[in-house]
Amino acid sequence: MYNFTFHRPTTVRQAAGLLARNPEAKLLAGGHSLLPVMKQRLAQPSALIDLSLVEGLSGVEQKGRSIVIGAMTRHADAANSPVLQQLLPGLASVPASVGDPQVRNRGTIGGSIANNDPNADYPAACLGLGATIITNKRRIAADDFFTGMFSTALEDGEIITKVSFPIAKKAAYEKFKHPASGFALVGVFVSKRGADIRVAVTGAGANGVFRVKSFEEALKKRFAAKSIEGMTIPANGMNSDIHASPEYRAHLVGVMARRALAKATA
Amino acid sequence: MGTYGSRSGAVGMSAVVKALDKIEAKAKKVAAHMLEAAEGDIVFKDGKFTVAGTDKSAAWGDVSLNAYIAHKFAGQELEPGLKETSFYDPTNFTFPAGCHICEVEVDGETGKTEIVNWTAVDDFGTVVNPMIVEGQVHGGIAQGIGQALLEGAVYDKDGQLVTGSLMDYCMPHAHDLPSFKVGLTETKAPSNPLGIKGCGEAGAIAAPAAVINAITDAIGSENLIMPATAQTVWAALKNGQPRQAA
Prior knowledge:
The complex is a heterodimer of chains A (266) and B (246).
Chain A: E1 5-7, H1 12-21, E2 26-28, H2 34-39, E3 47-50, E4 60-63, E5 66-70, H3 75-79, H4 82-87, H5 89-96, H6 101-106, H7 109-115, H8 122-129, E6 132-135, E7 139-141, H9 142-145, E8 146-148, E9 151-152, E10 160-166, E11 170-177, E12 184-193, E13 196-202, E14 210-211, H10 213-219, H11 246-264
Chain B: H1 8-34, E1 42-45, E2 48-51, E3 57-59, H2 60-68, E4 97-106, E5 113-123, H3 130-150, E6 181-185, H4 202-219, H5 230-237
Parallel strand pairs in B: 5-6
Antiparallel strand pairs in B: 1-2, 2-3, 4-5
């Protein structure tokens, strides 16, 4: 690990100020993606700005027809939140399926979506529910937020403070885990909220999380697994690595989507 | 030159037995002096030396002590001490045998294999410590399941290992394994004095074959390479004749 300075601001404003003064700085949330790459010397931030002392960044609460999750909310706390389990259990199952207990007790929703790992779970939930990502500067629709593998619409000095999820009547996540890492080899989040039907896929796409318009179209008639029976998506554009071929990933998208729909409509 | 594998018990403990035989023979000489009897009349049983046909006896501790103060009574004929060395080279290998039965369920849509039942009976000859032996079998099966389903070293075209971390290289986890049912039969090995057979590798030898046989039986295709990951089984499934569970 290379040298870096370490800051522990207590307000978002302080954190933003530090970020503005240190262009090579990184925000530290749970650290489960950032610290390993720093240890391997693949990342060399000049400073770490630890957000753990910033007040008001954690917690899950209902606000009208939405659930708002603070950016520093740990996966375990979100998964075990009674509010979330009761009002949007499909979303609660997402942090519950992340990694292992150690990761779930450290990792945060803000860290996960800011990193936008192509195999991470939360991006699928954000896109699959049409969430709004709230920063210290603005509100960004999930459809505009995830801009490619490990890249987002976040600008310099911008800090995610919370994520707002509309309470969809039907929502579920189904994930095919990589056996070693627990990351999503393919994860599909489906939801229906009035006429808004969403099918979002993580793990599979060469450009990170994406929506399957053909499935969404077919589900307009009836929101059920049967409506996309036998449907597939092209392998073209799927990620290819040592863990899975594009063909296998494309196939799993259909399987996981049908299973998520079965769960959402059960 | 190492142990050759699965022979620490069979070879090492045989050497211990041989050395103990020498100790016992020498201790009998000491006891014969102590009990004023002929060496041939000394019987060693239950940690006690007795003179056959009498009630005269000496405890192991007393005999040991006297072995170290042998000058008092037998210094001229008997070297003090109870320390012996033995070398042992077995006349043959040992031949443990067993049967491992693996039951799998294959997800027809994803190719993911779940091991739902494991029953194994092995014959390791004389078993000295059953708990250790059972642990060896458990560990061996887990290692074999890892080989069959999960563990694959992948190199890129430059020879760089790309499965260089446990995030990429899948070791078997507890949740990848069923609860094993294991049993033993005991047919003594003729090639060593205790009748012990090797047990360390049994699980690791049986498991890959049992797992792959179970999968090929389930999917109706023998065209399967290890590790039989979900993707590998999914690809094989497309050409197979899957069977339904009975």
